[in-house]
């Protein structure tokens, strides 16, 4: 025979279990990007970004590993990050004012507004020692000077 107290606790236990499962499920979705290390290549210079309604020139730092891990930081003056991209072969994370709220997930599922930025990984990793790299994607143009 079940007591009234155990019947009242059953919904509470179910709710707490659902919350715990929900919180641990979020952890499995989060992607872990590698942190830059000494064997990563780094390039810095300037980026001219032209969007449909925006035109910005700022400093850019690009870092990448032989395994394909990639970071791009676009800044305007000291301490003002406009956009930060972290990306590997399958996943990306983009944040900053130019990202309009930020985004992270599978690169293939990226919002249209960020696809041009995510195309830069392959281009910049293949650019070698080129001092000038340009790319156009839709209404956006990216011109790098290293």
Account of the 3D structure:
The chain is α+β, with helices and mostly antiparallel strands and 146 residues long. It is 27% helix and 37% strand. The protein contains 2 helices and 8 strands; from the N terminus they run αββββββαββ. An 8-stranded antiparallel beta sheet has the order 6-5-4-3-2-1-8-7, covered by helices on one side. The longest helix has 26 residues, at 4-29. The chain starts with a helix and ends with a strand.
Would you identify the regions where 5 or more consecutive residues have pLDDT less than 50? 16-28
Biggest sheet layout = 8 strands, antiparallel
Across the major sheet, the strand order is 6-5-4-3-2-1-8-7
User: What count of helical segments does DSSP give?
Assistant: 2
The average pLDDT value, as a whole number, equals: 85
Shape: globular
Kindly state the percentage of residues in helix. Answer: 25-40%
Give the CA-CA distance, first to last residue: 77 Å
| N-to-C SSE string, H for helix and E for strand | HEEEEEEHEE
Taken as a percent bin, the fraction of beta residues is 35-45%
In total, how many beta strands? 8
Tell me the Rg in angstroms: 22 Å
Q: Based on helices, strands and strand pairing, what is the structural class?
A: alpha+beta
